[in-house]
Amino acid sequence: MGFRMGIVGLPNVGKSTLFNALTRTAAAQAANFPFCTIEPNVGDVAVPDARLDRLAEIAGSKQIIPTRMTFVDIAGLVKGASKGEGLGNQFLANIRETDAIAHVLRCFEDGDVTHVEGRVDPVADAEVIETELMLADLESVEKRRAGLVRKLKGGDKDAAQADRLLAAAQAALEEGRPARTVPVDAEDARAWRLLQLLTAKPVLYVCNVDEASAASGNAFSEAVAAMATEQGAASVVISAQIEEEISKLEPEEAEMFLSEMGLEEAGLDRLIRAGYALLHLETYFTVGPKEARAWTIPQGTPAPKAAGVIHGDFEKGFIRAETIAYEDFVTLGGEQAAKEAGKMRAEGKTYIVKDGDVLHFLFNT
Fold first, then answer.
1. What is the mean pLDDT of residues 1-7?
2. Which of 175, 179, 220, 312 has its CA 20 to 30 Å from the CA of residue 63?
3. Tens-digit pLDDT profile for residues 137-156
4. What confidence tier does 46 reach under pLDDT thresholds 50, 70, 90?
């Protein structure tokens, strides 16, 4: 399981440049004019994880298969999108299909790159996007509630649950708060997700800074970080220009370039890590002579569900999971040594898989 992150923002904030760099493609046309991205471009990228390489080295795996993350570059938003301005309707439809939203905010000064609002103010840009999404949600909620009237009169329980959740969302939106601020009980979680409200999606603010500010940020990114903290959201600092340059280099050259820029890692690594935290995801591994592979699951996933990520039959016929912690596998030098040291455990259906677990599933066919 990977996840889809929609890259959104006002025109000319560096969305497409970032997308091109992250996916190492030229699929999205990066140009200095609004709406250069007309169709949502989709790109899968391998999730970098040094643990996977180490496991493959120890096990002598012939192939390394990382888990993947999908980026969706969505057309630039403008004020009035909720009413269909610009590419508003298309933008809103595309964003519903993502698991999380990365708001790319312009945090750099450059007279050669126009700004749709004629100024550089990332916090105000974020507010424009959030406002348009809230207005779109409010319109959607009102229409849905009106459409439930007949079912409510007939005593439909599902309709009653949906209306109750929509009413809570409407109250928040009318107060100027996004739907993600609404507390949702476990029994309502599935019905809430099915509402597909735009402002219910987790948000990550991506501060696109100039090259000189890539290592430590600047006043613009600090203002965004303060806003994110106030909202209980997250932010990450990236220079789309640097990421674009790195994407054209060989791994060794990229490492040297990053070092020269005073950066410990590429922005992609930071962005993915922030995305994982945002969606409460983690990784487990399967390792053998043929391949070493990473799998993404939500935190708190029981072993049978984790097995189902590989194949549905693994979940249906689950017997047990043979489990070795990553640190034990590496420290002891592989599966056999871990077994001999008593570090391989047999876990049943109630076992909650932990980040870094090396697993082998036994199941009935």
1. 78
2. 312
3. 999 999 999 999 999 999 99
4. confident
pTM metric for this prediction: 0.81
Question: Is the per-residue pLDDT at 291 higher than 80?
Answer: yes
Confidence band of 26 (pLDDT split at 50, 70, 90): very low
| Average of per-residue pLDDT across 329-340 | 96
Cβ–Cβ under 8 Å, residues 86 and 136: no
Return the closest-CA partner of residue 141 out of 191, 179, 190. 179
CA distance 284 to 67: 10
